[in-house]
Amino acid sequence: LTSVCRPSKFIFLSGDRLLLLDFTTVEDYLVKLRWICFLFNQGDLCRQGTLLFLAAAVSDFFIPHDHLPQHKLHAGLTSNRTSSDNIQYGTDGSLTIHLSPVPKVLGLISTKWVTSAMVVSFKLETDTSLVLDRAKAAFKRYQTHAVVANLLQTRKQEAWLIHELDGGNSGTGLSSEHLTVVPSSSEELEDILTRRVAYLHTTFLALRKGTTR
User: Fold this and answer.
1) Inter-residue contact 20 to 51 (CB < 8 Å)
2) Which one of 16, 30, 86, 205 is separated from 48 by 20 to 30 angstroms, measured CA to CA?
3) What CA–CA distance (Å, rounded) separates 96 from 90?
4) Residues 19, 77: Cα–Cα separation, whole Å
């Protein structure tokens, strides 16, 4: 945690407005995310309108650090006994790896860790028939302010933005905006998405200001 307290060692700043976090492992990501949320709750950071844009592609499964094997895995072994319960050899020399689910922290971020910030998460899928339903389910389950849904095979061309911030009136129901890139344009999808999220952030701040008067 000490290294996370020294921003120059792990972040990049752009015009004093954009902070990018670097990470390697799932544990690294979770620890830094938890600590940065803690820092956002200090002083006036959240009151100034923090936006958490969680675009990292984090695996759904992992081997916890405490269960990683200490030594190299060797081929040709038939023993069921290894230094880790997560990794087992079969009698035919096959290898079975047991993966644990990565802890879900999205709900904690928006409801406990940094409640004053706007939180935008991502939902990547490969099945066209599932992407919107799963994104909407994630929006309701984790109570983020917006979900960016996309398909692996078309992630450079299209995305859907799920939110309830239309015109400052969340009573209109859940919105599902389809963002696409015009084939003849040199504009990238990230440009379109960034502008739209920036607009929603302005709406979010206006709504928050109205409720705190």
Assistant:
1) no
2) 30
3) 7
4) 47
Per residue in 104-147, pLDDT (tens digit) is: 899 999 899 988 889 999 999 999 999 999 999 999 999 999 99
Domains of the chain: 50-60+102-212 (3.40.50.10300)
pTM listed for this prediction: 0.80
Judged by DSSP in three states, 104 sits in coil
Distance of CA 97 to the CA centre of its chain: 25
d(C-alpha 13, C-alpha 33), whole Å: 17
Strand partners, 176: 162
What six digits make up the tokens of 15?
């015009």
**What amino acid occupies position 42?**
Q
Contact call for residues 65 and 31 (beta carbons, < 8 A): no
